[in-house]
Design goal:
Number of strands: 11
Helix content: 10-25%
Strand content: 15-25%
Number of helices: 7
Number of domains: 2
Radius of gyration: 36 Å
Structural class: alpha/beta
Shape: globular
Amino acid sequence: MSGSHRAAGRRRTNAPSGADRAGAAPGPRVRAGGRRRKPKRRGRALPGTVVVLAAAAAAWFALGPGGAFAAHGRSTALPQAAPVQPGPGRSAAGPTAAPSSDPHTEAPAADRSDRSDGTFAAIPGLGPTFAARIPADAGQVVLASGADRNSSTTTVTLWSRTPDNRWRPGASWPAHNGEQGWSADKHNGDLRSPIGVFTLSDAGGLKPDPGSKLPYHQDRGFVASGTGFNGESLAGAFDYVVAIDYNRVTGSSPLDTREPQGTAKGGGVWLHVDHGGPTHACVSLTEDHMAELVRTLDPAAHPVIVMGDTASLAT
């Protein structure tokens, strides 16, 4: 592309001759005696060389390395001697390599993570251990992912299984969990939420049924009194609840105090309305999100909750 910058200074905008377009100087001048002076040789490029270089430059800037065919995964030769660096979907054999019959050399990125329809082959953040614990018939997964093992802040996302066995995420909501964080071996009074995969079978609350598909148990017993760990009022915390089937008898009201594994393992672990601070072991959401969750969970989809800190869930 460099050519002879000195010759280029003599070009005309619309030069009619090939020599002028190539940057040639005017012809030799005749002396008074009728003899021609031999032209001085200058370090300019030959016309053919300049034309080739100009064509190469134009192709480079118009099409970029690889030309217009690179977007379709086909090889094409560039009008320059420099080797073409291989890129995604291109052969490393250089510009003379034969085009491949299949331009894809690996699975598309969308198939490795998500697709344009927003679904995922697997729920992000879950390692093989927890992914395998999700029942095959579970069509809804409430994922409660804690910030860390000793944190009381959580993010809750409802995932739905698609007909082609992929997962579609719903909105993500901020939430709270146990004041001391999480435990894979929960005990009564440890102020930790249990880590694991649990079914969701029964709902209820102080307020009337907002449109639950799960059995809904409205009861005046859903009353929270006193203050939380941050001094916040607990009023309204049990307006809507969904019982987490940890150490409880399913098919009964969330108020049922029976604990099949014994009282030492703790119980009464619910999803309920957030009161602005940590819980004893439950997972809490704002009232509007809690009402939406109650309306969305469907027993026909066999919903479960996968809960724990992010490091534990990744195993």
